Structure to design on (230 residues):
């Protein structure tokens, strides 16, 4: 059974940093691209970033480019998102997702999400 | 990247069919057959319902179907059931090697 378990969310002040992690199990992690998708409270889904299976290629939404960094450790089946210079508008539930095939937009498995709150 | 455009809400009676539209541009929906649809219940993570415009993952009822014409895609739910009441989002790969989600549609079963 595929499982994605996010951690690392919490309350942070504007301008601060936070690192999210996602532990994966139930599939061959190193074979699949992974992505982060977020959802502000009461709002819609927003794609954040994607990383290729090997980790060699990464892409970001314009809203987070230069502030967020996605990475992965295929030896530990872990996906990470380093978030710097956080803004109030970054407040959201962050979901870790598995992508079935690239570049197809089929995020076939989702974690339960971790809440990031940016507030003073 | 801009969000794809969906109607804010769609409603229908049990047994009826409803269609949700998803409008983008030639740089996303119109340029690739990589459109997917997601169902989300309140407080839950989204679930993949349709991928590659028309394909259903294993376990998704066949009353859910997808299509595309030009820069717009659609999700049709036939034989609407009470359990279909949820939020629905489309998504597409884009020419910038990014992904775009739709604005979301709340489906209400009357």
């Amino acid at each position: 059974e595929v499982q994605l378990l996010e951690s690392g969310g919490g309350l942070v002040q504007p301008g601060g940093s936070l690192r999210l992690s996602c532990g994966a199990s139930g599939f061959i992690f190193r074979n699949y691209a992974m992505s982060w998708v977020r959802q502000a409270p009461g709002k819609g889904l927003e794609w954040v970033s994607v990383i290729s299976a090997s980790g060699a290629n990464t892409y970001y939404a314009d809203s987070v480019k230069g502030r967020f960094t996605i990475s992965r450790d295929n030896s530990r089946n872990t996906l990470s998102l380093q978030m710097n210079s956080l803004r109030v508008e970054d407040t959201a539930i962050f979901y870790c997702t598995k992508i079935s095939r690239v570049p197809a937009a089929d995020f076939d498995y989702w974690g339960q999400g971790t809440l990031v709150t940016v507030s003073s | 990247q801009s969000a794809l455009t969906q109607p804010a809400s769609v409603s229908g009676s049990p047994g009826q069919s409803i269609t949700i539209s998803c409008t983008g541009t030639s740089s996303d929906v119109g340029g690739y057959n990589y459109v997917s649809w997601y169902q989300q219940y309140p407080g839950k993570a989204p679930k993949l319902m349709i991928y590659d415009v028309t394909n259903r993952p294993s376990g998704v009822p066949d009353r859910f179907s997808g299509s595309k014409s030009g820069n717009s895609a659609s999700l049709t739910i036939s034989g609407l059931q009470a359990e279909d009441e949820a939020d629905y989002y489309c998504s597409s790969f884009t020419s910038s090697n990014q992904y775009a989600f739709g604005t979301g549609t709340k489906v209400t079963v009357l």
Q: What stands out?
A: The CA atoms of residues 23 and 99 of chain B lie 14 Å apart. The beta strands of chain B are 9-12, 18-23, 35-40, 47-50, 64-69, 72-77, 86-93, 99-101, 105-109. Chain B has a mean pLDDT of 96.
